[in-house]
Amino acid sequence: MRILILGGDGYLGWPTAMHFAMRGHEVTVFDNYLRRRITLQTDSEPLLPLPSLPERARRFELETGKHINVVIGDCCDHEYLLKAVQEASPEAIVHYAEQPSAPYSMANRNSARLTLENNLGATFNLIWAVLEAAPDCHIIKLGTMGEYGTPNIDIEEGWIDINHKGRSQKFLYPRQAGSLYHTTKVLDTDLLWFYVRIYGLQVTDLMQGPVYGQSTPEMDIHPDLLTAFNYDDIFGTVVNRFVTQAIAGVPLTVYGKGGQTRGYLNIMDTIQCIELAAASPPGRGQLRVLNQFTERFSVNQLAERVKLVGDRMGLSVQIQSVENPRKEAEEHYYNPVHSGLLDLGLKPHFLTDDVMAAMLERIHQHRDAIDIRKILPRVRWSS
Q1: Rounded CA gap, 260 and 124, in Å?
Q2: Which of 22, 78, 104, 307 is 20 to 30 A from 4 (CA-CA)?
Q3: Among candidate residues 122, 89, 137, the one with its CA nearest the CA of residue 278
């Protein structure tokens, strides 16, 4: 299959590219280093420095004999993106090319504007590049479970049947995002659904929960093939933050009451879900929504898991509740459906004690690179 990965330099994009290339697909990655620039501007660099995207691709080919085509470009430049689509002639496009940090989107007007313009501009230009150059291409867009918020009813898989005054119709499940970043993902979905209805695009929208981990078979080949591992308060997801804090001897920062519950998944399962979606496109004129996570945890449960495993390893992990910088429910109902990817064949990698221990051991190898100044929350949702 010919696959174009937008945002191919990112935490998820790079390992996805290697995975597809190892399986014989013709892979092109497209990225403008936006995430790298923002992490530098906000003092949120990843744990380890990363080679450039062309350097990573050269190392990957040297180690495996598999080629990844690299294009450095901006999805918000329509003509450049259109050219990339024309040259790659993709059968599937994986859309990771968005500013992915909720805290960054809430920091100030400039970061909010960048998030809004980049995320919606990238999706809009992708839609038109597909319409103009690859109308049969399957768009696989990475959404987020954060689009749904935390409603007091079960969260269905993208759609809900409404009965009202004796009549019924299926609608996209109501969404109530908790940050501007998550709001841009809601708008992405609405934009794609419009073009699916009007122009017959075929789209899979993967509503993904927070991802953890830095180990895949491809990344383990050579240190230069690692992906960006952020542990800071702006770009680091909660599991990655907690394991790094445990190694650094910093108390795990539980925001508020710690009852915030979400669906989580291993980075290997993100890649598996993308592969399953690509292998089974929904067909022209279809928007398929799949809730992408494997397990549910509250923040308190995650902190206790890290402490349990860390203490066994002699780390003496402490847990500390801090004032919540976010505006969110700290105790709530949370019961989302997530059967679609399991039906497609997902084989989950669960967050076992052994998996947690392996993460702690991996971070321990680089403990001297940890900057504890990046850990405490620096962005508040309201003044």
Answers
A1: 32
A2: 104
A3: 137
* 349 within 8 A of 76, measured Cβ to Cβ: no
- Number of Cα atoms under 13 Å in the Cβ half of residue 353: 8
pLDDT tens digits, residue range 38-69?
999 999 999 999 999 999 999 999 999 999 99
181 is catalytic: yes
Domain extent listing, the chain: 2-374
Sign of CA dihedral 121, 37, 68, 204: negative
Q: Among residues 203, 103, 117, which one has the least CA distance to residue 146? A: 103
Query: Is 33 one of the annotated active-site residues of the chain?
Result: no
Which two tokens mark 286?
């279809």
Using CA atoms, how far apart are residues 200 and 284, in angstroms rounded to an integer?
5
Q: Is 185 a residue of the active site? A: yes
Q: How far is the C-alpha of 29 from the C-alpha of 31, rounded, in Å?
A: 7
Instruction: Render pLDDT for 266-310 as a digit per residue (tens, 0 to 9).
Output: 999 999 999 999 999 999 999 999 999 999 999 999 999 999 999
Catalytic, out of 104, 173, 181, 195: 181
Q: Among 3.40.50.1000, 3.30.70.100, 3.40.190.10, 3.40.50.720, name the CATH number for the domain at 2-374.
A: 3.40.50.720
Catalytic hit among 144, 150, 184, 216: 144
Residues in the chain: 383
Q: 133 is written with which tokens?
A: 């150059």
